[in-house]
Structures are given as C-alpha cells and as structure tokens.
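Researcher: Next sequence.
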Amino acid sequence: MADPRSGTAAAFLGLYPPTLTASPEDGVSSRNARLQKALDYVHAHADQPISVADIAAAAGLSVRSIQETFQRTLGQTPMAYLHHVRLTAVRQELLQNNRSTTTVGAVARKWGFGHLGRFSSSYYATFGEHPRHTLRSIDGPRAKRS
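Model: Next structure:
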C-alpha cells in the first residue's frame, strides 16, 4: 500500500513548479556577479568600519558563502582582501601627500588601522619598506630589497 503522504507531497510540489532552470554557467555567472558586488562594496567603503557580514549583505550572500567565494576565487578571506585594499590606499596617500604636513599615523587611522605597530609590520611585509620611508621618499618608493 502506498504512503498517503507521498501523494500529498507530490500535489503540494505541483503547486510550486521550479521557476529557475539553472545551468552550471548560470551559477558561475551569478557567483561572479555577486563577488563583483562584494569587491565594489569593499573598495567603496574601505575607509569605513565594515565587517564580513556587511560585505556578504552587499553581495546578497550569507557570511559563509562570501567567505567560501573569496577563498575559492581570490585565495584569501574577505577581511584579508579589505586589509590589502586599505594598505594600498595608505600607500597611495603617502606617495601623493606633502611629507611636511602628513603623518603616517593620521593616514593609517583614516583607513582603519588603529594599532600603528601592527600596521607598520603589515605594511613592511606587503611593500618591502616602512611607511615612513614611503612618505619620505623623494623619487617615489624604493625598490623592494632582496
């Protein structure tokens, strides 16, 4: 004898036919579009306090999904990407501003770096020179030392 619930379930599912017929390409395209939204959000708000949840919401994804998407596509977490965007922004400001009126600390704090020691270490690890040297450079940044 057939389970009477199976007929009810089939009837219920018949009321709500699938609205999307996704192909693998659609999934990749959608994922790329959502990642692009996340990247755009990070770049537009890098000078503000933002969290992974904010980035995920901007992309229309869950926190876990945005973390997986960043890791799979970019090889890093959303916060690591944000950190790099902020470091690059600090570097650009240090290279473009007047060194007699600009301080490394002020620029770093503007971009969300509260602990200047950790900021300086991270900056050095990324660019091969200390931020104060970038600010003081006359002919542009020095080459990364081997």
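Model: Residues 27-75 form a domain with the Arc Repressor Mutant, subunit A fold (CATH 1.10.10). The chain has eight helices and no strands.
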